[in-house]
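Entry
Fold in token form

___
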Amino acid sequence: MAFSRFSPDATPAARIGLGLAAVGRPGYINLGRAGDLPAERTVGALRERSHQLLDAAHAAGVRYLDAARSYGRAEEFLAGWLADRPGVRDVVVGSKWGYTYTAEWRTDAATHEVKDHSAATFDRQYAESTALLGDRLDLYQIHSVTPDSPALRDPAVLERLAALRAAGLDVGLSTSGPAQAEAIRAALELRYENGPLFRTVQSTFNVLEPSAGDALAEAHAAGLTVIVKEAMANGRLAGEAAPPALREMAREHGTGPDAVAIAAVLHRPWVGIVLSGAATVPQLTGNLAAARLRLDPRELARLTELAEPAARYWAKRSALPWS
């Protein structure tokens, strides 16, 4: 299969995807997890929560689902949901390789995931992903590319990615860190036949951290679909944690700050999909309100004033505890 069959106009909510990072493992860095997840974060409890979210998302019109090898059992939960619902054939599935989950289902692990962009890790993790998702996998992405990552210059890795393209599976990359723009532009230099090697780029972009915006616009112009992650800044733009200006705007629109934060990203003409990282169905419902929210130029300009220097934003993100 291929990501190219994704249609952003399939449903009113199709430009919002569901990311499973927050519910595929017991520990993550989103704020408020103590109140979001079951008291006992067993595998069974998070499988049930994942399936509830997937059911609600599909019923609401979400059509892109995003997982990763490092999201604990997210691929397993997603594969089980798909197997239990054989009639659901209108979703597009993406996953990622490059991080290995090492926390062993603990929230207090010293290390939760280990990054390795080698060809050997690709071989192992691609086999693991396809063993679970089979032909339901539409998009396979390098996880969290930075300018110093070997993934964009290792001939063995690039050969494997080109082979996936030749076999009909689309490839993409995600980026992280204060130099996302540099990584995106380096990725655009890589070619496959007559166009870019990558079909998609998934990057952190929100009203606090907009530094990759110009590079993402260039990626869109080059034909890539832009997928935005962390539109709510790991919870910093939701509920009472949101900046006062965002909360005030949300009150004016009768929504939550999360919907305003996501809507601000959806208003960018180069954005294809914005991921919801909801951990509860009410959170998902609140996020999806962004699909019908319209912000005027004055409001959008006001939100740009919330931006932080990229280095400061990523330092704050690095300091967030796994919980």
Summary: The mean pLDDT is 96.
